[in-house]
Design brief:
The chain is an alpha+beta fold and 488 residues long. It contains 15 helices and 20 strands. The mean pLDDT is 93.
Length: 488
Amino acid sequence: MGSIDEIRKTRLEKLELLKSSGMAPYPARVKRDFSLLDLRKDFETLSGENKTISTTGRIMAIRGQGAILFVVLSDGTDKFQSVFKKDTIDEKVFALFTNAVDIGDFISVTGTLFTTERGEKSILATDWMMAGKSLLPLPDKWEGLVDDDERYRKRYLDILMDADKRALFEKKSVFWQASRDFMIKEGFLEIETPTLETTTGGAEARPFVTKHNDFDMEVFLRISVGELWQKRLLAAGFPKTFEIGRVYRNEGSSPEHLQEFTNMEFYCAYMDYQSGMELVERMVKEVIQKTFGTLQFNVKNFDIDMAKKWEVIEYVPYVKKLTGVDVLTDTEDALREALTRLGVAYEGATRERMIDSLWKYCRKTIGGPVWLIHHPKLVSPLAKSVENNSDTVERAQLILAGSEFCNSFTELNDPIDQRNRFTDQQALIERGDDEAMMPDWEFVEMLEHGMPPAFGSAPVGERLFAVLAGKPIRETQLFPLMRPRKEE
């Protein structure tokens, strides 16, 4: 095989050969009576009728030479063999095929169905037409695209040449459809909320900032799936809502984190975190079973049985057990000393960041599935306080293989408490904490009008799918963001 430039030059010459022969290389319409899958399903009937049919596909392989060629077509539904025999097709049409066609081209084939001596269901070509001429070659069928940068930039080739990769994205589609089906079955209304916001409520993360030219103001890409908007809908009288949508966080990348990803969030009036945990656990098990066909996984050397009843542990006692620190009562100096002693790197010197860093050190020991409950109020500004302990909140998170999922709350609907917590978050921002939650004072005004008791959760998301699939999250995105290539 020559260089890419040489291959392209040769294929451009074949393109001109097609034109000079009167065959359009990129026609708007082609002959197609059946998909390749339908051909295979209805093969016995169609071959018995001995009728002439047309089908289309991309050429994935060509075998043979001289008077007979075996051509493997693929159209995304199936693969199917087409046979070109010199004595069953016009001589000029056959010659044009042999001289102008390459692996990677899209063609339409007309002919009759038959079974070869080797038992291969096939279509015997009596005519053909070009559907789309390729000017660059496909990757090697055995090695595919081995360079990660190339795979992500040319995902269309990566998926085309790798059946396992295609199956991964089909499985991901099942994951989201199963999630949507569960919510609708439970009586939730699917809604859409803004992705451009003037404050980034609903999570603690560094946002992307952009300019709204028409309003001449700064706006942010959302960091949650409309949490504060969905709570407004609770106040509006919708008892159950959910949304599946894109989220943007201007932070670092890791095998489990990207700056753009898909999450689900739902909110349910008159439900608390205890009944909500039961709903989320039931949902996650159903979605995972439908997606992966199992509830048993090995993730990061943890054997995980999602089918069992999930254990419950409390945040503050668990951190104290592993670090010797009470994150509610010990001083900031004590927290700092513990982080140093344990060799935990952390960003920011606020109490909230240090508590969160200590917890992240502890969670690495948990295989799960485990519900972590009763987080410190300081790290949970939107959750309702535990009745007998105002320093902790009714919050729950699923811990799997040392990572957090299914962030869930009994939602705070006390406007005075919410105003005070937003004030605390504002103080953190002023101290330089760029992950603290931006106050949304219009949200507080909504609470003053009244919002019912409620439970909210982000039960499933792209991270959960990636972890259970055993893949880095970047690998499970069809088109991850790439830096532009520098001009040569």
